[in-house]
Design goal:
mainly beta, 10-stranded mixed beta sheet, about 0% helix, globular
Length: about 190
């Protein structure tokens, strides 16, 4: 069975420049019906949001250990420090991963150990705002993305598939569920 990192309590859509953001990570199967049995280290990274819809984030901060996830602490709220040198109005994406090597935010389908650790997750952009009071309540995000890397015949390049998932339980309010697939091939880099 494959396990996926996700957000039981997602990050906000807008965050303050004055302090950390609050999340609750989750490790469960794809339907979120079975939690991981055991312990798993969880790391966080930040990626500056790029407006280029064809790009797979290549710039991420070095993963930093956030917690060791266990079922006994599955509902624990965690504080994530802000991205380094974040500026007013700048959007960043939060990445949770259990891998610190290579491209930890990409699920490599050529990896011999595929599924050995939970699949990473990336939030939608969080806009950091200096006028956003630390105490005000903001809307929580209702979508996440996962990036899958497919090996091509050329060993030097991969194709990437980005899958966006609707995580809101209030599906009657969702007018359209969208599957976003972005594929980046070597020809996109020219």
């Amino acid at each position: 069975m494959f396990y996926y990192l996700s957000f039981l309590r997602p990050p906000p859509s807008t965050g303050p420049l004055s302090g950390p953001i609050s999340i609750t990570p989750q490790i469960a199967n794809d339907l979120r019906t079975e939690s991981l049995d055991g312990a798993q280290d969880v790391y966080y990274s930040w990626s500056p949001h790029q407006d280029n819809s064809k790009s797979v984030p290549s710039l991420i901060t070095k993963p930093v250990k956030l917690t060791t996830w266990r079922q006994s602490s599955a509902y624990k709220e965690l504080l994530v420090p802000l991205p380094p040198a974040v500026r007013d109005g700048q959007p960043w994406r939060l990445i949770l991963t259990s891998n610190v090597h290579g491209r930890p935010h990409v699920i490599s389908l050529k990896d011999d150990n595929l599924g050995h650790t939970p699949f990473p997750v990336m939030s939608m952009p969080i806009i950091f705002n200096s006028r956003h009071p630390k105490t005000s309540v903001t809307g929580k995000q209702e979508q996440i993305e996962r990036i899958y890397g497919f090996p091509l015949k050329s060993k030097e390049h991969d194709a990437y598939l980005t899958v966006r998932e609707q995580t809101s339980y209030d599906l009657d309010k969702v007018k359209k569920i969208q599957l976003v697939i972005k594929v980046k091939t070597p020809s996109d880099t020219r």
